[in-house]
Amino acid sequence: MILTLMLLSVTHAMNSQEKQTDANIVGHVICLNCTEHLSFATITVEGTTIGTSTDETGHYQLINLPPGTHLIRADYMGHKPMIKEITIRRGETRELNFELERDVLGLEEVIVTGTRSKTNRKESPVIVNTITSRIFAAYQAVALSDGLNFSPGLRMENNCQNCGFSQVRMNGMEGPYSQILINSRPVFSCLSGVYGLELIPSNMIERVEIIRGGGSALYGSNAIAGTINLILKDPINNAYEIGATGGVMGLGMSHSGDPAKDHSLQFNTSLVSSDSKTGMALYGFSRSRDPFDANSDDFSEISRLKNITIGSRVFHRFGLRSKITVDFFHIMEDRRGGDRFDYPLHESNIAESVQHDLNTAAVTYERYFRENDHFSIYASGHSMNRDSYYGAGQSLRDYGNTRDFSFTFGAQYKAVLGRSGFTAGIENSGTWLKDQKLGYPDLDNPLVENDSVVEILHTDNVLVADQSTRATGIFAQYELNLNKFQVSAGARFDRYHVRDNENAGSDNSGNVLSPRITLKYDIQYYLQARLSYSRGYRAPQIFDEDLHIETSGSRKVIHRNSPDLTQETSHSFMASMDLNRQFGGLYLNFLVEGFYTHLNNPFSNHYSQPDEEGRVIYTRDNAEKGASVRGLNFELNMAPAEELTLKTGFTVQSSFYEEAQEFNEKRFLRTPGDYGYMALDWQTTGSFGLSSTANYTGKMLVPYFGTDQPDPNQGELRVSQRFLEMGLKLRYDIRLNGATLRLFTGMRNIFNAYQRDIDAGIDRDPGYVYGPLNPRTVYVGLKIGNQLN
């Protein structure tokens, strides 16, 4: 039905394209109180899909506009947007110029995640933090995972020495409590989540929008802690960028093996037609990283990695008020950790290896009605084929294959009603996942006759998991703006069904109502107070850690869901004060945010004793009592001058179950009580620039099951050390004809803040990792393009 409506809408739009009117607007965009023209500023006609950008000289043109009165908007990164009204007649060309005021801290930028529609960040009823491409560049973030530490409440962690399985924690809650979106669509499946944060290259991302708490009300399951939305780059002008980086990890580490190389290539380009009706963006990425052994035990702490990514985004405007956008990207990755990298996997003492073949496609059709009402209909699909090996002791039985497909399609309408707005929509999503161990020749049990081997028997494929999930959600949200007071109230109703095709009678269904209400009050024009409540849930499905196996010479850890596992629900409360003010030449933004989340029927793990083959089963079930997470997030952004910006954030928190869990402990494991970040950027009036970054991680409880304690099967809890990871990057720009050549060099983790007690040997505990992801790394590189950040 939805696809039929989409086709009818597209057909109608194609039949109603505007004819040549020769009504044109031309002009330029400059910064306020200066004569600098702003290259590649975005120019849009409000309430329509029409848009263009300024060229290298800061000039633009809008041609063949419909006659009448229009609101023209100019946007440029680091500047406040400006809207001007103009009336134009058929056959007329008029000039319209803009002078944009500096917005050094990005408070006026447009965000979409908080309310599922475009909103000014400062005016949004929900706090939305952004990690921009400039932050990725300052830290020299090659992949998405490298940059996610630079937002309050977020912390990236490595969970496996062998293969680098990583996750992002939000407000202290582990990865599956956060919903990962791509262009606001939940197509990041549980299989993609195992290594996906390191799979996605940073050069395909325009920005990352983060909402802490309350995401389930608009985005569905697994958004209890919040939502992380990856906004891909849009083709808005004719631009290109090509870059290459070479790095070396582990320099100066006295007890490590040889330093490891990490090289990458990337390109971005976009092409837009002269009438701005059609555009296409292309991006590509290639990475090659050697394995790194931090303690010279011949087993890697950082896996070998080879990644190739290519993708595109295409749009076409059918007329004044309609537009279609198509996205596609393909990722191939080969990663391997363990030892004996020159040998086949089953001839290694330990090998954890995966080969990913990932494809994602999405289509969105948008249409404006009345003045600013906005309708969108969308569909997306995500498929992955993964060949894996998680084995030790030169085993042939540990090859596997996992196939996964996820989809989402839906429709949304936003109506603007004076000072209020109403958004409603329907969404259907689902996944199919099949995980199996591949058959192998059973060399230990050959067919023997008369003391002679007659035949080597072969073991058939073994099905590990065969699960499908379907969820249908209906959501609605109402926003009311009464001068200084703003209220946003919404809810989402989900009906989900989890089908276990392997175990008959293990299906699970549920109905969930997730409300959210947010209050915002402008105490002063520069000071906003916000208060919110939301309810969320997690369905009892397969999660990313279930598709990863920790392997050593003595143990193999496998995660499974209990047959009696039921949904987990949450109640979240947040309160914040947000100060945004300019004191003379000082731009200042200070946020303090308190959060409290209570979990009902929280998921918890219970582990078994190793069987005769050393397998340990971690079973996820529901704790009899609840759990709570509480804390404070602080964020300070300031610019003493337009050339110098400082962004910093800090989190203090506690999280615990109401009854003791693993190790007779109530506190959440692997969750530090305090952590934070800092990013400083200085751009001189000339060609030189400097960036400095820091990440701090406090102490936490970490389980250890290695041989360096009395009973490896029982394990023990250890307290980690604190870490302060610092980085520095220098850059120099050389202006060319219509382009810029940037040379840069830098060092990450300058003082080598790296875990000192990493487990060693074939019987090590590969899950006993808790420090920064990478040791000291030195890199050099260059970029050339006509639009560098």
Shape verdict: globular
| Strand residues, percent | over 45%
Helical run tally:
5
The major sheet is characterized as: 22 strands, antiparallel, barrel
Query: What's the β-strand tally?
Result: 48
Strand pairing plus helix content: what structural class?
mainly beta
The first-to-last residue Cα distance is: 43 Å
pLDDT averaged over residues:
89
The helical percent reads under 10%
Evaluate the radius of gyration.
27 Å
Poorly predicted runs:
1-18
SSE inventory with pairings:
Layout: H1 2-15, E1 24-31, E2 42-45, E3 51-53, E4 59-62, E5 68-75, E6 82-88, E7 93-95, E8 98-100, E9 110-111, E10 119-120, E11 129-132, H2 133-139, H3 144-147, E12 154-158, E13 166-170, E14 178-182, H4 192-199, E15 205-212, H5 216-219, E16 226-232, E17 239-249, E18 260-272, E19 278-289, E20 304-317, E21 322-338, E22 350-369, E23 373-392, E24 399-417, E25 420-437, E26 440-441, E27 447-449, E28 452-455, E29 458-459, E30 462-482, E31 485-500, E32 508-524, E33 527-538, E34 550-551, E35 556-561, E36 568-583, E37 586-600, E38 603-607, E39 615-622, E40 627-641, E41 644-657, E42 674-683, E43 688-697, E44 701-704, E45 716-719, E46 723-736, E47 739-748, E48 777-785
Parallel strand pairs: 1-7, 1-8, 14-16, 35-39
Antiparallel strand pairs: 1-4, 2-3, 2-5, 5-6, 9-10, 11-15, 12-13, 15-16, 17-18, 17-48, 18-19, 19-20, 20-21, 21-22, 22-23, 23-24, 24-25, 25-30, 26-29, 27-28, 30-31, 31-32, 32-33, 33-36, 34-35, 36-37, 37-40, 38-39, 40-41, 41-42, 42-43, 43-46, 44-45, 46-47, 47-48
Structural features, described:
The two termini are 43 Å apart. By secondary structure, the chain is mainly beta. A hairpin with a 2-residue loop joins strand 27 (447-449) and strand 28 (452-455). The protein has a 22-stranded antiparallel β-barrel. Strands 1, 4, 7 and 8 form a four-stranded mixed sheet that branches. The chain is built from five helices and 48 strands.
